Amino acid sequence: MMAYPNVISCDKETFLKSKLNQEYFRVLEIKPLKGIAKPGPVYEFSMTGWSQRSVASKHPILGRTEELSQYEMYLHNAILQHQQDFTRYRDNKFAIAFIGPNSIGKTRLLEECLVNTPKFIKYEKFVLDHYDKVSFKGFHYILSKVFTGSKSFRENSENRVRFSIDLSYATPIQIHAVNIVFDCRFPLPENFQHEEDLLDDLSVKQVIRNVWKRQFKNLWVAAIDNAHYLDDESWRVLLIILDTKTVFMVIALSDDEEHTPTIKNCLENSMIVNIRLSGIDRWFHAALACQLLDVQAIPADLEKVIETASAGMPGWIQNFVISLVQRGALSIVTVTREEAIDLGAVVPSSTLLRRTDVHIGAQYDDALSKRLSYQSIYSILSISAFSKQGSTFTIQEMDTIQMAVLAESFNFDDITMDMSMDAVILKTYDSLNPYEKMLLKCASVLGDVFSRRMLMHLLQNDSPRTVALAVAKLFVIRVLECEGGDFTRDLSMVLVHPAPTLPSMAPSAPYCKCLGTRQPACCEDLPNYAFCGYMKFRHPLFRSTTYDLLTENQKHDMHARALLYLERFTRRCLPCGGGCFSKFVGLRCDDGLVQESEAVKRTRHQIRALKTETVVPGDQDQLSVFAHEESSDFAIHIIPECSSLELLKKERSSSRFLEMKRLKRLRNKQMKKGVRSFSSVETNNCECLTILMTVYSQIIDHCRGAGEFNKLYEAYIEYVDINLISLNVPQAIRLLIEVENFVQNEDLFPENVHRKWIKRFQLAKICSMRGVCMLESGDLAEAKKQLLHAMELYYYPFPTSKHWVKLRSFGASLQQLMAVYLPKIYPKRISGIIGYYYEDIAFTLNILYQLFSECKETENAKLEAKCALNYALKTNANFRLLCICYGNMISVNREERNFRRCLKLKERAMELCHRKRGQLDVTEVQAVCYLYTCMFLFYVEYGKKMEGLELGLSVIPMLSDLTDLNTRQMLLLWLLKLLLADLRINEMVNIIREFFYMTDHYDLSSETWYYFYAIVILLDTGYCVESYGSCEKFYITKGDAILRSKTPEAAWNFFVAMWLITVRIGSWEQSIIWEEKIRKILSMKYKEHEFNIMMLIRLVEGLLITLVKETDQRNLNKILLLKKSIKSMFRDMNKACCRAPMYRPRYYLLYAYFLYIKKRKLQAFNLLKRAYESAKQCKHISLLIWIEHTRSHWRGTLTQACVDHWIYHLEPDNLLDYTDFDPEKIDIVPFTLPLPNDIEK
Ligand SMILES: [Zn+2]
Ligand SMILES: [Zn+2]
């Protein structure tokens, strides 16, 4: 694809069809592709599947030969030892720790180690930061980079664990440990408690090692930078997995003072080699300075100062040299080498400046991969030693070189006195002109990394040229540098896509690697980095120092302006229509459910007036992108030659009117249609979550800086919500701690009389959110505690006695009856702050419903669902909340089989969906998915196929990886059945390909479902998606591991379906491999579960066919046994059919067949008639055909070809491909149920 240069890319279809391991694919970011409206996800293919090999820096590393050879030696030792069963104590070294103070060059050394790692060894680099000191979080971060897959991290992790070990043999403590260490949620026995230290338990250690060993067969290298930020528990886990000898770790961490006792303990372990780094030798100082300045010679004075003051710290030398450049003390001239030497400059050997060993590395790899021996390593070391000795002769004696020169007036005295970094920074700052200072101040408000656009907004009205000149200056003196943004597909004003890293070696500063930035016509003489679109402070200290120079008022003003920018320009992504988010920093937009508040109206007008104010050159077309779209929520309409006032006038007169008319028409149409499809939702291309994440992470700082405390609270709560949607629970918990501190300590509304109340409700909201986090992480007890506390804070405590629950439940039912049947009169609408209070209560109640449902406390759950809906209806304005409430209520009534109430609720919920104006946004999609799935399941149970299909199919495009697993599973399970009944084979195949056939080979349950449905299509229609042979092959390669998957039901169903095929074609030899499984199934107890009726129905069919066979052979014993078990199964099925009416016709058909075999023909024909009636009633097309077919067969009116049709087409040469199926004609010939020989037709 042209849009993705230098990458092997493919679309989803190709990706799925390739059947290659998922590890080899990575999802690429979305770019608009020419001529393709909805390209869907695009994948990059690479055979390594691991991190790209990093590019060697163009300069050689200086003075670390000893450390590098140690690394190579121990790595080599590890390569030799890792396959051995026994390793001697002194050879058991699987980690190397580089310990040293800041700016000693640890990160650079780590990189160099990776460059020197042989190519056949995979590696991954992990960089920790100070947020990571949460128990086990560091280890989870490491896992998230190596346990990759198609699902969310937790699901990937669970799949891998299931794949590695058989959890049915694990003790509760082991499962608990796996849950905590690998971030899984495997079910634990009820009331399981564990207080002791988990990682001390021997069986726990063993289970961790087993998982790890199964996952990594080959030795790989893990490079961990800033390991002092790793939490204690993660350190201990790392120590445990070192024992497996499957990973070699190279760790960089700071000096001892900061270490916790645990870290100190771990470092003393004999498997870890500790190497303390000191400064580099002084004869490398000049070379390093040359490398940093990208010159070949420096003045002797400079070398002397560095030698005396630096203590050999490479980081110090870097800062020092840069500070000299920033102050204009150094300039660069071109001279010949001889001239330089004559001038007394220090000219380091060129081998110290230019990398010569790049090609050697390649040789080394080949040699090593062919033949592993000490000799090869020795030869490498000697070559590099040789090249260092050869430094005395220089190749190009006459060549011109770049030399750094100190300014005439420059005097080192004042520098050597105060060498602290902030003093240097302040001096640099003083040397700038006022405009440059101003620009830096604005930038410092925005953060370490900032976009040019926001900077322009803060600077307001300056000409592009002035800004460009200042930026260029700051780039040259290396205060700022490019962060690399991709503006070619720049569709949001607040989100900057990162530009791809350059494949070649990093160019020398200053440079800009942004894509798609433009130079205005007046500035063509300026270098391109003057127009960098995405910049950062080269030194974070420079930012904080500059920021501290601002007065409180200035800070306040600038933060307020930045906040305004974010508020104005935070829009949904283009595929989602680019409109406002339904809720943003406490403001809700008018989505048809709420009255638009004054504040929102104001923002809208501001947006329209923006054109005159802040359009950055080159941005016009970006803005006009928004104008193209015409969704009914307010897009930003910008008509270029029009003042804002004119715009307002125009809008009031014409467009408003037209819009109202259009809306009315649209709404009427939708009302008639029934289900609102929300077809515009595009989960594949949506970037809204990323946009929101970016914005909230900035907005919190700005709210704080601008003193907007109320907004700050809202922003925090919404940010937590977004984190929960994207399943980032640790981040959510951290934010909740922050906001709780802030609410507790800050007096928000000193003049408001209700401030105590408000504080109380805010704390209640925080508690509820924390409850969600706990529920998400599986800690039900803590979740309950938090939620009940929240309810107390709301002055609405949960009833303490059963009696009280009943009473309240009765009241709530009454209220709800009124609300649902008399929606116009009851309840009274409440808005404003009291309305929000009710909505918050409803939110908490919904979570409690979820909690009680999980704890199987049905009565309590019911009560909470009812109360929640009642509260939510008081405002009747919060779309997301109402969707969840209606969904919960519909499931409650479905459980009680109160279908009339369900219908009424569904009616109200549909009204709600039609009232909703415009497109859904990312925060609402899940709620609608949930609501529709609940309604869909109700229709399934109610036996209405067409209504169900319509609802179910409209959810499919909204599904994403973020949808709750249970919802996803139930929906797909039933939807596929309905589609099959309707003979919509092609749609069915599309869905199973999309949702099940992901080649993530750790996710076995999905794959098993895929093969199961392929077989079911073959069984019921005779059309082939996957042949019997390929399904059998799937089982042979995966074996019984599929029984350990997330849903073992998938495997059991698959076995039955496979067995049925062999039984139908009468290939008794082939059926033997399945027989054992069938016997196991027959001995199992069935719980009432959706999966079991599926299985029973096929099992009975197979047994009936076996019965016919045995009757022919007159095996009386077997006949009796079979009849007995068949009878009991029919009883089970009859019961199950009440919950799943769509199985009833099939039940009748099979029962009729049973009677026919028993020669009770009259009854059999009668029952067949009943089967026909019931199939007709639930419009089960495929079964109607089968029943007709069977009737003709019994009457003897079928031709022989027709009788054998199904079996004939099962032969590998005669397969009917499913793509040949013509949905118009519906020409399927079903299987003919065989009859005993002695029955006369
Ligand atoms: Zn740039
Ligand atoms: Zn979106």
TrEMBL record:
<dbReference type="GO" id="GO:0004016">
    <property type="term" value="F:adenylate cyclase activity"/>
</dbReference>
<keyword id="KW-0547">Nucleotide-binding</keyword>
<protein>
    <recommendedName>
        <fullName>Adenylate cyclase type 10</fullName>
    </recommendedName>
</protein>
<dbReference type="GO" id="GO:0005524">
    <property type="term" value="F:ATP binding"/>
</dbReference>
<keyword id="KW-0067">ATP-binding</keyword>
<dbReference type="GO" id="GO:0005737">
    <property type="term" value="C:cytoplasm"/>
</dbReference>
<dbReference type="InterPro" id="IPR027417">
    <property type="entry name" value="P-loop_NTPase"/>
</dbReference>
